[in-house]
Structures are given as C-alpha cells and as structure tokens.
Design a protein that fits this description.
26% of the residues lie in helices and 23% in strands. α2 crosses α11 and α8 packs across α9. The N terminus is likely disordered. The strands form 9 sheets. Strands 12, 13, 14, 15, 17, 21, 22 and 25 form an 8-stranded mixed β-sheet that branches. The protein has 572 residues and is of the alpha+beta class. The protein is built from 15 helices and 29 strands. The protein starts with 7 loop residues before the first strand and ends with a helix.
C-alpha cells in the first residue's frame, strides 16, 4: 500500500514557478468566506487557553474544487446498484483521479497565492484535490486574515491543538477554487462514548458464560455458526482516530478465550499509522469483534491516532485514502460529529470523498451514535433532534444498536434506546430509501412532532446489530461495554464474509452497500420490540419508535448470515 510518506511532494518554486513571472505581483483585497457558516471552535470538553505563538507550526489542508463531480456521482450509482449493468465494475484510484482532479490552472493559481506568502513547499495527494501545507501561525494569520489560539481538552490534558479564533477569508478569485480549508475551526471529537458496565479479572473458564455478548453469542445469533473466510485476497479494516490503539496481547488472549468454537486469526495482518501508546477501548473492541465475525479475514488496523499538528483526524484519514492505491474493501468506523457543528461545504465535500471510495468498491460502515435521536437546545430554550454526521451521509452504511430483551442470550432482540438515528437536516433523501422510509412515515407507528425532524431528508440507520453487554479484553482485564461502536464491527465482519463468498465465486466485492440492502430487506431479522429512542429526556420528549420493517432505531434489523450470502450471490 502506498503510504502518506510517498505523497507527491510539490515544491512550488521548482515545479511551477521557474521564474519570477509566477509570483503574484498583487494579492486581491476583495476577500470572502469559503464556508458559509463558520462555527468558531466550540465543543464541550475543549477550552481556549491562550493565543498561539506566531512561530508555532500548524497544518492547513486546502480542499481544491474537483472537476466532473456529476460524472463521479453518476458512475458511483452505476457501480453500486445491483440492478445496473455496471454493478461491481469498480474503478482504480488512477481512474478516479482522471475524473476528479482539479483543473491544472486552478492548482497553479492556488499555489501562486501561497507563494506570495512564502509558502513554497506543500503536498498534493494522488487525486490532486487536496493540498496539505505546514506553515507558521504567523504566516497562516496573514494568509487567511484571522487569529489562532491554543485549545486544551478538559480531560485529556495532553490534547492541545491550534485553531483559528476568528472567521477566515481568502481572495475571491481563490475562493472559487476551494471547497474549504481544514485545520481552522473543527475540533476533534475526543472521548470514549462506549459505556463501561463492569470489569473483572479474566476467569480461567469462560465456557459457562451465559450472561453478556461474546463472539459465539453473535455467531449463533446471526447464523454464522462455524463458517469462516477462505479467500486469501479478502481483507477488512477498522479505522481509528485520536490515539485509539489496540493491544496485540489482548487480541491474542481474547481469541484464545472466545475463539475456541471457530477457526480464527490471532494477529492483525497490516498496521497503517501509529499503534504505540495507551490501549483504547474502542480500538480493542473493533479488532476483537471484526476478527471474530469476519473470522480468518486478513485485517488491517488503520490508525490516524495522533493530533497531526492540530489537524482534523477524520479529514486526515480521507487524505490518506486519496493517496493509497490499494485499500481494504470494507471499513468499520466509529466516529462522528453533530451536523450542526460542521459547515455544509465541508460535509458536501466529504460526501464526494465517500463516493470516491465507493466507486473503488469499498464498503464504509459508521456507528449511528449513542444519543438516540439526540437533543439540541437553542438559546430561547426550544429544542430539536440532533442528527450526526457522517452517520447521516447518504453515501455510507449506518449501523444502529439492539440488545437482548432478557438477561440471557437466548432472549429476543429489541431496539437499544441509545441507538442513534433519525433524519438529516442537510441531505435530501436518496432514492434507494424513498419507498421504504415513506412507508414508515405513512404507517400507524407513533411519530414525534414534525417540528423536531425533517422527514424529507436522509434517514438512518440502515441496519443494526447487538450493541449491549459486549465482553472485551483490555489490559488483561475482562470488561463489559455497550454502544453502537460494538454493532459496527459486528456487521462489518459479516459483510466481509459475504465478500468472501463472492470472491470465491470470481465476483467482485459488494462495494457501497445501501442499494443492495434496500433491495433485499429480507436478509435481516426484523426487530419490532423496544422502547423509543432517547431524545430530550429533561423535557420528557421521546425519540423514534421501533416498528415492523425499517425504523430510525434499528434500520431494517439485524443480519442473517445465510440470507445475506444468498442475496449477495444473486448478482454478478
């Protein structure tokens, strides 16, 4: 795999400006904002602690406007729709580059603007649509006519990053060539949302465990039984952020205790990025369960673990994917922000990045979040539901959560009231789910007041899985955790198994999953029990209700491995 270190390094003076003609003689004073809504750094858990030193180094990521985005979207849907004659005919990174790379003159114009401020060495990703520059704070303040400060996390005290404390602007002629600039306002979403329910030393005999969820529970529940992957070309991955590292020793011990009923691997095949530091709950959970459900599938641990000179970790991962020729065909991701905290320009561009990934045959699964419908209070004390992104993106598969109705694992499943779900406030409803979601809205199910959500927009989650009472091993302790972060690697592992069956038959992997999912609702166990999802509990306001078929708590329900594979094998 091509790493970030092999990114095309661009020295502006050498590559484009061979003589003084390249330098801008003047810089336009007619400036404007790129992002229509610039929310200054604000998030629970982060505090402004002082003005940044002008000599400090910060990283800016310039998202260059792409060409042919309508063509990209059309091609994305063709290769993703099982009913299309182009289904599964995915593109290489080089072919994607040919579609989206910005106009060469636009790149030159942006570089000449940077050179005017003596920013002479930046890096372009392979698709040439992101430009990454390390600059001093003093230069960045002049470039963008803003000020920078230090922000420290209130719990993770070593997390100190640099962000702009004011809005930023650029010359109008440059604004037309950029979607946004990263590293200015968005603060990383630091902190574990996983709920720790209990912990204990690892007992010598785990065979009699009837309480809680472990790999055998899920493999039996979702009809995987003793099926494991056999194709040597099959891979799967988890994406981790902000110093979430897994422990190889914990993984091996987990598999030794909980993997006795099925053939399995005990080691990660590939590590990309850092994995040296304090073991993270999220990282251990992801690798232990994706490797238990996607048993024998070669697994990649893709870590965007540090703070990257204050860079946004999720954006950093997007850049890495645009710069890596061969990537795993499935990612399990547990990361998100409230839509409200992000600009529309940023989210729309990230949606294009998801299309760039999907057109290459990659399934991206996101946890739906652990706040139910969510709740945002306005200054006037009114409130509304709070959708999350990327969970609300039409171009990812979003995984909600269920739990057992009783104490033991032979009980039925019900919706978990923490399961994130609802309707986007930004993205219109994609065609693949229009009929399904309209059916839900027109059914007899009790709906929240329409003032709290936008029923014409993208609805999520798409599917769900168990998300409560998961046993993991961390630092040689047995720990019980809960959250949709547990459901996501579970579903990802099952999708990896479906990919395995297709690869063994000489077929391509599934790629972007949602058209396949909405055309095959019978591959899921319908979850019809459960309390309404959480919302504004201080005001006694419930979220959404579980119902027959699709609903905004459990999606279509939980996967049946045999029916999943049978449906996947129907298509060429």
């Amino acid at each position: 795999m091509k790493s970030w270190m092999s990114v095309f390094a661009l020295t502006i003076a050498a590559a484009l400006c061979l003589n003084s003609v390249c330098a801008l003689s003047t810089v336009s004073r007619d400036r404007t904002r790129i992002e229509s809504s610039q929310l200054l750094p604000h998030r629970n858990g982060w505090n402004f602690v002082g003005h940044a030193d002008k000599a400090d180094i910060t990283t800016l990521v310039l998202a260059l406007k792409q060409r042919n985005t309508e063509e990209l979207t059309r091609h994305f849907w063709r290769v993703s729709d099982p009913r299309s004659s182009q289904y599964g005919k995915f593109l290489s990174l080089e072919e994607v580059t040919e579609i989206v790379q910005p106009h060469p003159q636009h790149i030159k114009d942006v570089l000449k603007w940077l050179q005017h401020y003596n920013i002479n060495t930046c890096q372009l990703v392979q698709t040439r649509d992101f430009l990454k520059c390390r600059v001093t704070v003093g230069v960045a303040e002049q470039l963008l006519e803003t000020k920078f400060g230090y922000f420290q996390h209130t719990v993770e005290k070593d997390h100190v990053i640099i962000r702009a404390t004011q809005e930023y602007t650029v010359p109008k002629e440059i604004a037309r060539k950029l979607d946004f600039i990263g590293g200015l306002h968005r603060l990383p979403n630091v902190g574990n949302k996983l709920k720790i329910k209990q912990q204990m030393p690892v007992p010598e005999d785990l065979a009699s465990f009837r309480y809680g969820v472990h790999p055998d529970t899920l493999r039996k529940r979702y009809n995987v039984t003793d099926n494991v992957a056999t194709n040597s070309n099959n891979t799967q991955a988890t994406a981790q952020f902000l110093k979430q590292y897994y422990s190889p020793a914990d993984l091996k011990e987990f598999m030794n205790h909980f993997g006795k009923g099925f053939p399995h691997l005990t080691e990660i095949a590939h590590e990309i990025g850092p994995n040296s530091g304090k073991t993270g709950l999220e990282a251990n959970l992801d690798v232990q369960y994706i490797m238990s459900l996607g048993a024998n599938v070669s697994t990649t641990f893709w870590s965007t673990g540090g703070l990257h000179e204050g860079q946004e970790p999720f954006l950093e991962w997007m850049l890495a994917l645009s710069n890596t020729s061969v990537i795993p065909p499935i990612f399990s991701v547990s990361y998100g922000d409230h839509e409200r905290t992000l600009s529309a320009e940023y989210m729309e561009r990230i949606n294009l990045e998801f299309q760039k990934i999907g057109i290459r045959g990659v399934s991206v699964l996101f946890a739906s979040g652990d706040d139910g419908a969510g709740c945002h209070r306005f200054e006037d004390e009114s409130y509304t539901f709070e959708p999350d992104f990327p969970a609300s993106s039409p171009f990812v598969t979003t995984v909600g959560g269920t739990m057992f109705t009783g104490l033991f694992t032979d009980a039925n499943e019900k919706g978990n009231d923490i399961s994130g779900g609802g309707f986007s406030n930004v993205f219109s409803m994609p065609k693949y789910q229009e009929e399904t979601v309209t059916g839900y809205l027109n059914s007899s199910v009790k709906l929240p007041d329409s003032k709290y959500f936008n029923s014409s927009n993208r609805a999520y989650p798409d599917v769900s899985a168990m998300s409560d009472d998961f046993w993991i091993i961390i630092n040689r302790l047995l720990m019980n955790v809960a959250g949709t972060s547990a459901a996501t690697p579970t579903v990802a592992g099952l999708i990896a198994m479906a990919n395995d069956a297709r690869l063994n038959a000489g077929k391509p992997v599934l790629g972007f999953l949602n058209p396949f999912i909405y055309q095959n609702p019978d591959i899921f166990f319908d979850v019809t029990l459960g309390d309404p999802s959480q919302a504004c509990w201080l005001d006694d306001l419930d979220g959404y209700y579980v119902s027959e078929g699709w609903d905004p708590v459990t999606g279509f329900g939980t996967p049946d491995y045999h029916r999943l594979v049978e449906a996947a094998m129907k298509y060429s």
